[in-house]
Design a protein that fits this description.
One of its GO terms (biological process) is cellular response to lipid. The chain has twelve helices and five strands. With about 325 residues, the chain is mainly alpha-helical. It has a three-stranded mixed β-sheet. A two-stranded antiparallel ribbon has the order 1-2. It is globular.
Length: about 325
């Protein structure tokens, strides 16, 4: 127990993350899956960012939005997965009090930022297909700047209270977090105080941010689908659907995995506690690994840019 004593009593000064409570002797084998995925995610996003930076033809709003998504993916990966691997490989389970809440802040802020980026990208595709003649006047570099400012401040202001509310609780007893990461409720339930406000705020903020993003994304694709079905040319329909295919695949995967994690977590004792913990870890790793690969494979301009990049390195 890492505790300190002062005039207000005994206080926790660091937390001990044990990851999977029922798999203490075997959990390190998960690193065989996590380590290659981390290398893949960081490498793929690095290549994508370098391609967009070096290839002049990719200096367009759509690809700038993709670059923002890659940066968010890298930050989320580096916030969670290296610490998990340190726990598995070197039994480095401790994390400082401030470090724990910093990790909580980054996770709770940058995950909704990724959702908001998908929303802006959906709007980009909506304008491109439903209002193609106005696209260049609406989706500009200034639009990307304004969208980035919106993404940052909207999610920063909405999610900042989550770690603040958790940090202000009185931690005077156990410091053992039954999780691989400093998730809000996993940490807050260790306190000696009332955490109903913490649970309520997390529930409201998550569903207001991610829920509203998902509804607006689905609405934009309803308009896109209606516009595509009205096209007379089969070739035009195929091209329009192709431009949205990559984006839609990643959106469906992002929200499906997130919803599965939420409902699995709510199922409580009906599902082993290791399942939501693993899903939470994977949600910080699989989308970052998948996003640049899907765009690299399905987007001809990016594929050509990556080939040029590798040729310049050889």
């Amino acid at each position: 127990m890492a505790l300190s004593s002062n005039n207000t009593g005994t206080q926790v000064i660091e937390f001990l993350m044990i990851c999977f409570p029922g798999m203490q002797n075997t959990q390190h084998w998960l690193s065989i899956l996590l380590a290659p995925l981390l290398v893949l995610a960081l490498g793929a996003n690095f290549v994508l960012l370098m391609t967009i930076w070096q290839e002049a033809s990719l200096h367009e709003p759509m690809y700038y939005l993709l670059a923002i998504l890659s940066v968010l993916d890298v930050i989320l990966c580096l916030t969670v997965i290296p610490k998990v691997l340190l726990i598995f490989w070197f039994n480095m389970k401790t994390i400082s009090f401030s470090g724990c809440f910093l990790q909580m802040f980054i996770m709770n802020t940058f995950l909704p930022m990724e959702s908001s980026t998908f929303l802006v990208m959906a709007y980009d595709r909506y304008v491109a297909i439903c209002h193609p003649l106005r696209y260049s006047s609406i989706i500009t570099e200034q639009f990307v700047i304004d969208a980035a400012i919106f993404i940052i401040f909207r999610n920063l202001l909405a999610t900042l209270p989550t770690p603040v509310l958790a940090a202000r609780l009185n931690y005077c007893a156990s410091n053992v977090v039954e999780n691989c990461i400093c998730a809000n409720i996993s940490v807050a339930k260790l306190s000696c105080g009332d955490i109903h406000l913490n649970k309520l705020y997390q529930f409201v903020s998550v569903w207001c941010l991610l829920g509203s993003d998902l509804v607006l994304i689905l609405l934009s694709y309803c308009f896109i689908l209606r516009a595509v079905t009205s096209l007379q040319s089969g070739g035009a329909t195929t091209k329009a659907l192709s431009t949205c295919g990559s984006h839609l695949i990643l959106i469906l995967f992002f929200y499906t995995l997130l919803l599965v994690f939420i409902f699995t977590n709510k199922a409580g004792k009906k599902i082993p506690s290791e399942v939501p913990i693993l899903l939470n870890v994977l949600h910080h790793l699989i989308p970052p690994a998948l996003n640049p690969i899907v765009y690299g494979v399905r987007t001809q301009e990016i594929k050509q840019g990556i080939i040029k990049l590798f040729k310049s390195w050889s």
